[in-house]
């Protein structure tokens, strides 16, 4: 075994339907309420469903003009806002370059691209101008972060659908462990757009009401948008500059169901292998995991598959591990959902409470899990959480995060 | 975790030249640019715009993917599955090992054709007209997923979208999957699909080579009169594995991945390239030095030079700065033949590192005095030991790799 550096989280940032900071996310999540409401970003009258967890306009108090920049796409602005928050909290500066940027996303500036295509097709009035397309590519939010923060390290965007954000965190962890960089901005960003809203409705995957993960009457997901960012750095780097770790990133794992383009493996085979790989990477035993931040979309197939995956990994103990699903509160943020949920996992460790899973109703009798409902659940110092993500095409990924507040793990 | 070098033991490609790396090698050796007219019937293109591309649309892939099996796949997915099967067959990977392999794929533009079709359905006929099958294939990772499903590959499955840097970033991440023990074998690929809308948008950004006075569209990498690149599409896949494991199973080792590097130019505009090469030069030089590689050890360069005025400029200036007082080794610019797409570039890079012959760079007539780079003009190339491959992406991302030719 080759010695590898320990990697800690020294900053977090988030944009969600609860607001433009990680503090907004934490306050919203712990209420046990849902931020899913009537969609206003575009006309949904011809859609089957009409709800989403839409990011509100930035508050007037937001000091940076970047969130209002017309040169950035909506997804770019979310990314830059979340990254700026994390960068500031970690007290980083460009003098620490090379700092890497590892981002996840699925649609980039598709919302803006749709306007171009609509005008090109004559569906909407106006000349199709290409300026909006300069931020259309999926890599644009990550690039915008690197450009805004003047970072010169490795910059790459992973687009493996809804596992993208989690895979980006994992790729950043490996780059730090390999010694390529000491510090990385890891996360993801995605914005609502007509294409994905229509596509998920075409698949009949969207719940007309706010989604209810793991509940008996769940019928589908709710779409959301936002961004989540973590500053990762070696413990040595953090200690040398006096930065305070918020949590420790212990490991990650990934796999593929190789089963179906949209349906998860019914027995959660790939998901279980991803979690097992993360445990192995973190050098942990399953019984050391204290809670699970689930993918928990609220679709009938996902939730039962995920439940079976957790039982495969944790055995009978799976019934007693607290499980939460943030998507009930902030919707399914697609390519950045894993990043936002990793931020939520850090918040849970920092505040020593697991956020509840929003939405009413009884837990499905087939879901033999301890789903945290209604109120936050306290967790002990030294807890370890696993955050999992699954995606179209069968991509599965998991990251494992540990409490730092009791000090260094041996 | 181990840190043994990854080696490349298989290559597969679907390019305008046909199926297989041999077809591509022949096109590169004879400088044959296989251009076809892009369908302009949708009315997306403006008068005077580029008309051609180097696409693999006409290539028959049925030997590798039965039409029935690929009927619900996007063009990119069909390219990817075919190329991946070729690579796995050429490397003779056993099924048990293959089932645990990772897949790391790069794409510049994702599922362009499927996305356009889906948008047309939604915008013209309403959201209820959206096809679930199209939506499923519209995600950027659809080709990687289809490779996994069609071949039963259950290791980590990652798709990278970083424009022109995607193939080398995929090589870096895929190589790391193998060297850190996350997978016994890594399938590393690049795939892109070109459609009329994407072609027209690239043209509107002024990125493409437009018709010359004689009506020809020619990419002129590093030339003083370069005006843009030839768009292209296709796919390539490589098989990577640990050197010891490859030797143990008697696999033919094509080349070794010595090192992969990457950086970012924060001064680059969103859809373009920066002007100042100094920081990137320092980054590349520092990386090569840390890897124990000196400029004079590099025998060959495979550049991403494609005929773009600003992309070729920054790449040339960085290369010259990295080599400082040393003369540049021969510089290949395969995108003049393959068009600008990751699959062609990735496969051509491996062919070059393996000593495959290259013909003269099409379109190069007159050096650009500011650049000072003359791409290969034909004739025999030195048998390379170390080959430096560089790619400079619009938006600021940069990636490079050094491959070592196998003596085995």
Describe what you observe in this structure:
The complex is a heterodimer of chains A (410) and B (408). Chain A is 30% helix and 19% strand. Chain A is α/β, with parallel strands linked by helices. Chain A has 2 domains: 234 residues, Peroxisomal Thiolase, Chain A, domain 1, CATH 3.40.47; 159 residues, 3-Layer(aba) Sandwich (Peroxisomal Thiolase, Chain A, domain 1), CATH 3.40.47.10. In chain A, helix 1 crosses helix 11. The longest helix of chain A is centred in the first third of the chain and has 16 residues. Chain A is globular, with a radius of gyration of 20 Å. Chain B is an alpha/beta fold. Chain B folds into 2 domains: 250 residues, Peroxisomal Thiolase, Chain A, domain 1; 147 residues, Peroxisomal Thiolase, Chain A, domain 1 (3-Layer(aba) Sandwich). Chain B contains 13 helices and 13 strands. The longest helix of chain B is centred in the first third of the chain and has 17 residues. The interface between A and B is large, with 74 and 74 residues.
Descriptive labels:
heterodimer, A: 410 residues, alpha/beta, Peroxisomal Thiolase, Chain A, domain 1, eleven-stranded mixed β-sheet, two-stranded antiparallel ribbon, 11 helices, 15 strands, globular, B: 408 residues, 2 domains, 13 strands
The CATH class of the largest domain in chain A is Alpha Beta
Which assembly state applies to the chains in this document? heterodimer
Mean pLDDT of chain B: 96
Largest interface, counted with CB-CB under 8 A?
Answer: A-B, 74 and 74 residues
Low-pLDDT windows of residues of chain B? none
Proportion of residues in extended strands of chain A? 15-25%
CATH homologous superfamily of the largest domain in chain B, by name? Thiolase/Chalcone synthase
CATH topology of the largest domain in chain A: Peroxisomal Thiolase, Chain A, domain 1
Please state the overall shape of chain A, judged from the principal axes of the Cα atoms. Answer: globular
Radius of gyration of chain B: 20 Å
> Biggest β-sheet of chain B: count, sense, barrel?
11 strands, mixed
Question: How many structural units, i.e. domains of chain B?
Answer: 2
Number of domains of chain A: 2
Order of helices and strands of chain A: EHEEHEHHEHEHEHEHEHEHHEEEEE
The gross shape of chain B turns out to be globular
Instruction: Name the poorly predicted regions of chain A.
Output: none
């Amino acid at each position: 075994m080759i010695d590898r550096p320990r990697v800690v989280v020294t900053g977090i940032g988030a944009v969600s339907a609860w607001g433009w900071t990680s503090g907004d996310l934490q306050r919203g999540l712990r209420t046990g309420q849902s931020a899913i409401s009537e969609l206003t970003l575009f006309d949904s009258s011809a859609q089957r469903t009409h709800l989403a967890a839409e990011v509100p306009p930035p508050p007037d108090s937001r000091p940076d003009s970047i969130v209002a920049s017309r040169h950035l796409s909506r997804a770019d602005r979310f990314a830059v806002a979340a990254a700026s928050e994390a960068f500031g909290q970690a007290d980083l500066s460009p003098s620490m370059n090379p700092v890497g940027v590892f981002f996840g996303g699925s649609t980039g500036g598709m919302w803006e691209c749709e306007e171009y295509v609509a005008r090109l097709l004559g569906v909407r009035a106006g000349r199709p101008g290409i300026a909006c397309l300069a931020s259309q590519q999926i890599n644009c939010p990550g690039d915008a972060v690197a450009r805004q923060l003047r970072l010169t390290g490795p910059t790459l965007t992973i687009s493996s659908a809804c596992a993208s954000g989690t895979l980006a965190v994992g790729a950043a962890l490996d780059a730090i462990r390999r010694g390529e960089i000491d510090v990385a901005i890891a996360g993801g960003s995605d914005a609502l757009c007509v294409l994905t809203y229509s596509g998920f409705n075409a698949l009949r995957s969207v719940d007309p009401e706010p989604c209810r993960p793991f509940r008996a009457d769940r019928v589908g997901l709710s779409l959301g948008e936002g961004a989540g960012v973590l500053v990762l750095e070696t413990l040595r780097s953090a200690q040398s500059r006096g930065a305070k770790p918020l949590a420790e990133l212990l490991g990650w794992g990934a796999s593929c169901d190789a089963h179906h383009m949209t349906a998860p493996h019914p027995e959660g085979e790939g998901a279980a292998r991803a979690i097992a790989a993360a445990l192995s990477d973190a050098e942990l035993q399953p019984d050391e995991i204290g809670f699970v931040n689930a993918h928990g979309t609220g679709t009938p197939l996902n939730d039962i598959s995920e439940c079976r995956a957790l039982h495969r990994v944790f055995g009978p103990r799976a019934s007693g591990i607290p499980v939460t699903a943030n998507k009930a509160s902030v919707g399914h943020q697609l390519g950045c959902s894993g990043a936002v949920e990793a931020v939520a996992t850090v918040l849970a460790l920092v505040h020593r409470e697991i956020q509840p899973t929003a939405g009413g109703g009884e837990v499905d009798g087939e879901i033999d899990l301890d789903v945290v409902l209604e109120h936050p659940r306290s967790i002990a110092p030294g807890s370890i959480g696993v955050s999992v993500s699954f995606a179209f095409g069968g991509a599965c990924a998991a990251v494992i995060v540990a409490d730092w507040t009791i000090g260094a793990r041996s | 975790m181990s840190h043994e070098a990854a080696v490349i033991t298989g290559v597969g490609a679907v390019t305008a030249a046909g199926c297989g790396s041999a077809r591509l090698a022949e096109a590169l050796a004879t400088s044959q640019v296989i251009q076809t007219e892009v369908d302009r019937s949708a009315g997306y293109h403006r008068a005077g715009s580029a008309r051609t591309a180097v696409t693999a649309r006409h290539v028959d892939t049925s030997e590798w993917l039965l039409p029935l099996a690929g009927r619900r796949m996007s063009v990119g997915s069909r390219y990817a599955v075919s190329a991946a099967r070729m690579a796995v067959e050429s490397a003779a990977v056993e099924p048990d090992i293959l089932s645990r392999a990772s897949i790391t794929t790069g794409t510049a533009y994702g599922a362009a054709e499927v996305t356009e079709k889906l948008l047309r359905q939604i915008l013209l006929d309403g959201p209820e007209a959206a096809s679930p099958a199209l939506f499923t294939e519209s995600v950027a990772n659809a080709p990687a997923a289809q490779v996994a499903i069609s071949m039963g590959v259950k290791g980590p499955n990652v798709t990278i979208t970083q424009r022109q840097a995607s193939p080398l970033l995929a090589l870096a991440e895929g190589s790391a999957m193998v060297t850190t023990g996350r997978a016994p074998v890594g399938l590393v690929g690049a795939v892109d699909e070109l459609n009329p809308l994407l072609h027209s948008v690239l043209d509107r950004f002024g990125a493409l080579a437009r018709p010359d006075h004689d009506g020809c569209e020619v990419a002129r990498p590093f030339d003083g009169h370069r005006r843009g690149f030839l768009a292209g599409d296709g796919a390539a896949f490589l098989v990577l594995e640990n050197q010891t494991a490859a030797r143990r199973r008697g696999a033919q080792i094509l080349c070794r991945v010595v090192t992969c590097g990457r950086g970012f130019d924060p001064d680059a505009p969103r859809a373009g390239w920066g002007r100042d090469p100094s920081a990137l030069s320092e980054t590349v030089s520092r990386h090569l030095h840390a890897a124990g590689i000196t400029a004079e050890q590099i025998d060959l360069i495979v550049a991403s030079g494609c005929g773009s005025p600003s992309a070729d400029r920054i790449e040339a200036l960085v290369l010259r700065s990295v080599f400082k007082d040393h003369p540049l080794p021969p510089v290949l610019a395969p995108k003049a033949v393959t068009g600008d797409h990751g699959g062609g570039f990735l496969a051509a890079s491996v062919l070059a590192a393996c000593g495959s012959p290259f013909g003269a760079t099409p379109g190069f007539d007159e050096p650009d005095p500011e650049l000072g780079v003359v791409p290969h003009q034909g004739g025999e190339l030195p048998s390379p030991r170390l080959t430096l491959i560089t790619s400079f992406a619009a938006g600021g991302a940069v990636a490079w790799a050094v491959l070592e030719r196998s003596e085995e």
